[in-house]
Design goal:
alpha+beta, five-stranded mixed sheet, 7 strands, Phage protein, Phage_JBD30_tail_term-like, plasmid
Length: 176
């Protein structure tokens, strides 16, 4: 899933961030403390969860894509209680922006999977909100589809048995 779609939704539907929503490849790349206007959010990829391949003649596999929204708020009193209240308000905006939304036609609705505190300091409180969205890996996503598209059209099947030889002609119209 493209994180840019999530970033745009958060910028459009979370006024508290004042469009301060960015993407990161991993949490360790979060900008240095004190260099940000707060509150801010960062969208990060998380691990995928996959089901078993369910088809014998093509490819069908459930895929659950996870991502985080790292919310950073200022720690004004160095204790964190007022900041958690602010986080609670911001989380509500994030939920309204994302929950139940289908970011692309072939995805289900986004669901919430919980939050955890992460690397808070005396200056900033960091919270990681985890979200999931499900889709399916289908034949069109595979190498098999590429290989099959290169084959010539199947027009005739020749069946040879010990009794007699039979030829079956396949046509695109029902007249011949």
């Amino acid at each position: 899933m493209k994180l840019s779609i999530i970033i745009k939704a958060l910028r459009d539907f979370c006024p508290t961030f004042e469009r301060r929503v960015y993407g990161l490849g991993q949490y360790a790349n979060l900008p240095d403390i004190g260099r940000l206007d707060l509150p801010a959010a960062y969208v990060l990829p998380a691990e995928d969860e996959v089901g078993e391949q369910r088809s014998q003649n093509d490819y069908r596999q459930r895929l659950k894509e996870n991502f985080y929204v790292a919310v950073v708020v200022e720690n004004k009193d160095y204790i964190g209680q007022p900041e958690f209240d602010e986080f609670h308000h911001v989380r509500s905006e994030v939920w309204k922006a994302l929950l139940g939304w289908q970011p692309e036609p072939y995805y289900g609705g986004i669901t919430y999977a919980g939050f955890e505190e992460a690397n808070s300091t005396l200056e900033e409180c960091h919270y990681l909100l985890k979200f999931s969205v499900e889709t399916e890996i289908s034949p069109e996503d595979t190498r098999q589809a590429i290989e099959l598209s290169k084959l010539p059209p199947l027009n005739t099947i020749k069946i040879k048995s010990e009794l007699q030889e039979t030829q079956i002609c396949l046509t695109n119209d029902y007249g011949s």
